[in-house]
Amino acid sequence: xxxFKVKSLDLQFYNYxxxxxxxxxxxRLRRKYYQLWDFLLTNxxxxxxxxxxxxxxxxxxxxxxxxxxxxKDITVYENEAQYRNKxxxxxxxxxxxxxxxxxxxxxxxxxxxxxxxxxxCSDIWEQDILLSNVKVKQLLRTKHAGYDLVxxxxxxxxxxxxxxxxxxxxxxxxxxxxxxxxxxRVWPSPSVIANIEKYGTLFVPIGCKTSVTEExxxxxxFSVAEKLLIYSFRHTxxxxxxxxxxxxxxxxxxxxxxxxxxxxxxxKTVVFWVSEEYRGDEWQPHMILTCFMACLxxxxxxxxxxxxxxxxxxxxNLLEDKLISNNATELTHLLxxxxxxxxxxxxxxxxxxNFAQHHISSFNIINNFNTxxxxxxxxxxEISKMCYCxxxxxxxxxxxxxxxxxxxxxxxxxxxxxxxxxxxxISNEINGKNLSLNKVFYEIHKQRLPYIILGLNADxxxxxxxxxxxxxxxxxxxxxxxxxxxxxxxxxxxxLYCCNDDLHYEQLYDTEQQALKYGCLDISSIFRRHVITAIxxxxxxxxxxxxxxxxxxxxxxxxxxxxxxxxxxxxRFLCFYRLYDGDNCRKCLHDIQLTIENGxxxxxxxxxxxxxxxxxxxxxxxxxxxxxxxxxxxDRLNVSTSFCVY
Length: 646
Description:
The chain is an alpha+beta fold. It has 24 helices and 15 strands. The C terminus is likely disordered. The strands form 4 sheets. The protein has a 6-stranded mixed barrel. The chain folds into 3 domains: about 350 residues, Poly(a)-polymerase, middle domain; about 170 residues, no CATH class; about 100 residues, Serine Threonine Protein Phosphatase 5, Tetratricopeptide repeat, CATH 1.25.40.
């Protein structure tokens, strides 16, 4: 096969993998999602660090997420000389007569234990106060109900959906770890090395199984360093890493005799070593098969010789005691067989089984756009619900607003961030406050309005309706009406309703398609131009409707998701009602009826809430007969309502 055909096959395979595993942009979006989780859940006591395949940017079958809780009030140093300022909860590493990769943590001679729970996790060993990894895991279990299983350094739930781990940090690069500087190499870059060494190392609660001091030993963890290395991967490197994981989970693990010998961490280490030795210009899309086979060759060599050095502590052989059974011999034969066959063996996997039927000559920007659109929708809702369920404090919300106003947002999950701002702006109840007092009025403005203004960027119209709702709650009816009219002008047939429509690449203007192709336009700009979302209210949101007795007794209203146009006309009705404009009130009722009947930005499952909303409006003006007709329609639809009426 000539060189041109080889490159062509490589590029076809690369584009195929981008569609199956994810493009570089999609991988970065997944990472940023978990970075945002870390950012939001971190508080004054604990830093949250997500690790695992999903936080690395992969979403393969069996991909997991591990949540590490880093205690801020406990610090580890390598020796007493590094610790000068007297402060509580400082522990010193003891590595003498301990297997490489592990350490005991003793209380510094110049320090003291400040918190009782830390005292309860410690014990005395040969006149030193040591932290017990067993007691720390017991403490973590008491704080997380349902996480009763211990899995290595982690606790996990009965379904093994997520692992939680307690960890500590040494703020310096320890001597036991090899020096990453001083050697001429392309990867990792000096800036990545500097960030790794600046962060230091972590310690997780698990000891060496063969050690007499197992209960008091902690494993040295390089989770953050490894994540920084993976974040520095070119996309070809990332795809090679994903291919090795697919090979393990979907091919090797299906053979009974080879199951449980290798793990994803070994594969990650292999890619690290190969990346260090390869030149940067070799990790190119047109060389992906060559790069993957180089990684496989290194894995075969390591298994053949039962030797795979830890990337950061090379004295540790990760394959020690792993390849001593007859099954290990079978695994060696299997890997050598795969290497002889070549990349074709990957079609044995479920994920990549249909490559032969795919003829992808170029990158499919349309599929990539659609995937990014759906992922952004999913992440925006998940982050918004998380913030609301956690009852975000003002500190947390202010962190979000700072992110959204930065010119270079380090997370760049703008769809999520602007969505959070919408809910932050309407989440606090303000009814009952004396708005006639200027001090109270401006206090409310100062607290809520900035978030709602930021939320205008989340989509084309719904953000404006949240703003109109907010102003209605402040009795600014005329201003609210003008904003509602502007929001309705955005609800044109060419817009996409996030409730039931999919936004497709072909629906964008030619200039927008070109801007997306060349990176001049991002997905949040597309949402702001083309997408309209439903109006969501939770129990204590600002919802401008007083509880209506007849509806309260007939239905259990807890939450609501209203069609935007229906809600816009209903809000207009309320404004005119408060302005004593009966003619316009009746016109708004007619507009609501027509909007529902024509299904204009109304999903089928939203008709119940829509008719209930219309019934509430009729009851407000005393028209019980019209209200009962609407409620009869609701009964005929035979769908339980979920609209919370205030």
